[in-house]
Amino acid sequence: MTPKLLPSLIAVIDIGTHKTVSLVGQMINGKARMLGFSERRTDGVVKGTVIDLERLHRCVHEVVNDVERSSGRSIEQVYLSLSGPAAEGERIKGIHAIPAHDGKVTAKDVTDAIASAKRLEPPAGRATLLYMRQPTTIDGRAVANPVGMAGKRLEVHFWRVTMEEGNMRMRVGMVNGMSIKVRDFILASHAAACATASDSDKQGVLVVDMGAGTTDWILYYKEHILCAGSIPVGGEHMTNDLSVALRISRETAEDLKIRFGSALHREADANQTIWKDGDRGLGDQQFNRGTITQVLSLRYQETFEYVKKDIMQHLEQLFPGHAVKLDQYFLPAGIILTGGSANLADAAEAVHAIMQLPTRIGVPTFENDSLRKPEYAGVVGLMTAAITDSPPPVRRQRGFLASLKDLFRF
Predict the structure, then answer these.
(1) Which domains does the chain have, with CATH numbers?
(2) What would the 3-class secondary structure string for the chain be?
């Protein structure tokens, strides 16, 4: 397989429910040096779903203009993040019978098995965007590299990500309309993991990226992606709950959440009175902190109960008839929590109590101090994934758009 060359310039765009972020880096000795960064409030997206393409197009166009000005470079191609329930994943496999004359696997056998898996059609009306490699097996035994090994039956496994064709065409067409090519898509939860999880963590870890409108998760086992998913609940739901409970505006609720909120409710909170402005003057409002933390903690607990239920449903499909537990034996590295909602006070402690797994806040390692925050794990990870995953072992060598050009006629 001849790897495609990395461009000297890498640009990524992460479109979230609350904010749209772009990062441009220059490739130097296999690493990216940041040239430009841009962030704007997202318009036209609710719970990870595009509801107004014109408003979103305007937002993305402004982000691109900003990052081009700050980097002094013209962007010709980008990597886009994939998040939310619109991006669905499933496990597929390709099977190849190993020739009996010597019973040893060749590189061609692996290629044939990969081709067998990729011939499987996605569900009607959906387009395949990503093939993410999972363990390869020989006669049911997992192997790192099957070439040269003996056996009868070779299987290659992938986590295939699909999206409704119209949704995918809309996203690609929006970027193409700015005379920019989509080089590839990257799963947002995988990007967050690339920025915060080490190779040793990926022996068994759950990465949860809790944004404003969605909570995306990805589970790694034995250094491979086992499964991934998303639920349409995020930080904005906590803000809405607080707004309704206290009968205040969403803006005030968001401010109180950030300043006085917690993912844990403690009895002592009920004895605390807090003031919105702090001056106790005319027009200032007072609230009981216990009410605030109770509302937020209940939503936090409910969100992670949904996440756990979604994970268990995926695991039951992957391992029918086997009881799989989300415990520290299965996930020795526990949980890494990223996204803007990871900034809520006591978030890691609350998730640990709900999931019964060690939990830590994922902070990306990056040259720019201002991006070393959980909410930027996605965009920093996009850059990391663009470098490390290009070319991925099974990604189309011609690039995403070239593969779909005839089908969608962009």
Answers:
(1) 88-164 (3.30.1490.110)
(2) CCCCCCCCEEEEEEECCCEEEEEEEEEECCEEEEEEEEEEECCCEECCEECCHHHHHHHHHHHHHHHHHHHCCCCCEEEEEECCCCCEEEEEEEEEECCCCCCECCHHHHHHHHHHHHCCCCCCCEEEEEEEEEEEEECCEEECCCCCCECCEEEEEEEEEEEEHHHHHHHHHHHHCCCCEEEEEEEHHHHHHHHHCCCCHHHEEEEEEECCCCEEEEEEECCEEEEEEEECCCHHHHHHHHHHHHCCCHHHHHHHHHHHCCCCCCHHHHHCEEECCCCCCCCCCEEEHHHHHHHHHHHHHHHHHHHHHHHHHHHHHHCCCCCCCCCCCCCCCCEEEECHHHHCCCHHHHHHHHHCCCEEECCCCCCCHHHCCHHHHHHHHHHHHHHHCCCCCCCCCCCHHHHHHHHHCC
